[in-house]
Each structure stands twice: as C-alpha cells, then as structure tokens.
C-alpha cells in the first residue's frame, strides 16, 4: 500500500492543523512544506516531521508530490492553484477558492483539460456533525425541507485579533470570511442556490485594534460589517442568513432547517462535530396553554478529525474514479453566491446565481480517515 504525496504551500497558523491531521492519515504523506519565507517553512517542516522544505516553487518541482495543499492568503489562491495545475498536480485549496469568478473559471477549466482535481474548503461539511444531520434529513426525519435559518454574529475580530485590518477589507468582512461555511452547508443540505437578495450596513467607518502592539490605533472599514441574505434554491426552498461583526450578543454556529414534519438543529458549520436534534410538530394546541416541545437527540455517527478531511476524501475519490464531495465546482458556486449577495446589498435587487452543482451525496458512515485504503 502506498500513500499519496502531498506538498503544503503556505506555513501560517492554519498549517499546524493541516500538518497534524494529514500526518495521521495513512493514505497521504506530506513530503515538503513551502512558503514565501523559507525559514518559516523549515520551522513547520521540522515541527511536524516533514522531510523537506523550501519555497512554493520547490513544492511544484517535487516529483513525489501528487497533491498541493494551498494555504496561502485568499488573494493568491487562484495564482498558486494554477501553478500547481500547470505542474501536473491536483489541488486542495483553503476557502475561498478565489476572489473573482473569471479567474476561478479559468482555473477549473485548466484542471479539467489536464484531468486534474480541484478540491475546496471548507471540509467541515464532510465532518460527522453536519453529515449526521444530512442523513437525518435524507431519511425523512423532518419530512420535506422547506426553509432554513443561519446566524453568525459577533462583536468582530478587532476585539481579539492583533492585526484585524484584512478582515475588514475588500474580499473579506463577515460575508466572505464566514459565508463559505454557511453557504456550503446550505447547498449540501438543500441543493444549489438560484437567487440571492441581501441588505448590508457598515456600522462604523473606522474600527479600533483592541489587542497586541498596535492596540489603540484605528483602521478603515471597507465592507459591510452586517449583512442579511435571503437565498432561494433551485428547488424553491429558502434560507435567511445573518452575518455580522457588530453584535454585542455572540451567537454563531446556528443552522436550523424546518420541514413539513419537523425541524432540525444542525451543528456549527465551522466545526466537524456538534449537536443534531429534531423537534416534531404539536398535534393539538389551545391558545394560552403551556407546552413543552421535547427535542429528539440524534447520535453523531462517524470519526471526528479536522481540516484535511476533504483532501483525504478527494484522494480516495481519485483512486476510486468517482467525483469528490468538497469540489472546486461547489467552491465556485458558493463564491458566486457570496458575490451575488454583495452585489444585491449594493443594488437592492435580487441577483441570479448562474452556476449550479450536482446533488452532493452523504459521506458513508463507515468512512475511516485512519484506515489504509489506497493500492
């Protein structure tokens, strides 16, 4: 049995999680870490027992690397992913897949021409938490799904991040920072999105850094810091989503799906595990009566790991000659949805989402990341 060689490009904070998880999967083996700063790449490689390090070019030139993991900043995602495709390697990229649709379309076209795969975060949608809820919905636990509600609201990252400016600049804000998690989950559960309407606001034109060496300094806010979106799915289902960096009340990780025969709580889409529970409709009820709606807990099924799960599933899908689940096409559809929401908030009109994706199957319950499966 032989493991698939993996190269990491980008050795920032998130690389720790990827390197730790990928190092525990027998089906893959990290061969090299690359970064704009080779010293930082070397430190990460030594920390996680990776044999080689260097620059992004060193990763692309490595003959023993079949898949490149792109952990660079969002503005560089398409450029680095394209370099990997041109080097003949499959790609797993952190979210978002890119910032502009034209660049993403060209990337996907190049990969298809060369018979290579693009996978895109978030892979939290493949975790046991959301997958338990997905299987419950597919089995009819809430009847026919009708509509959903999602919420992500916080005070904002300027409260805790020592350098939060980039999270308030173009291509970021709560929509583009957290939207990939929530919209990917909604598409996985309810199917592709057809139209988006949104309203946004920028509560303040400047924000203050609260911690770190630059605490007390101010920076400009370039994007809406609160956005409310209505999504209409190809199936006719609907969802209402809130994304905010302006709320004193911390409330995030909320996904509820309501159907003809019940409602279901879905785990936080930014986590791989969490609570799934169903409430059933009341049979009768009189005005003024006190009542209690019991929640039916659904036991979580599957092995909990973390980031890197999507890459592993893609590697196995390539070996089995089947589509992988966290695909570049899904990442592109979610990106178009977020761009449409941003445009709708500016124009006041609903915006059509022109792309679509095929129905996304559930992850098999017996999917074991720690098994060796590749020939």
From TrEMBL:
Pfam families: GFO_IDH_MocA (PF01408), GFO_IDH_MocA_C3 (PF22725). InterPro entries: Gfo/Idh/MocA-like_OxRdtase_N (IPR000683), Gfo/Idh/MocA_oxidrdct_glycsds (IPR050463), GFO_IDH_MocA-like_dom (IPR055170), NAD(P)-bd_dom_sf (IPR036291). It comes from the Bacteria. Keywords: NAD, Oxidoreductase. Residues 5-118 form the Gfo/Idh/MocA-like oxidoreductase N-terminal domain. Residues 131-264 form the GFO/IDH/MocA-like oxidoreductase domain. PANTHER family: BCDNA.GH03377. This is Gfo/Idh/MocA family oxidoreductase. It comes from Microbacterium aoyamense.
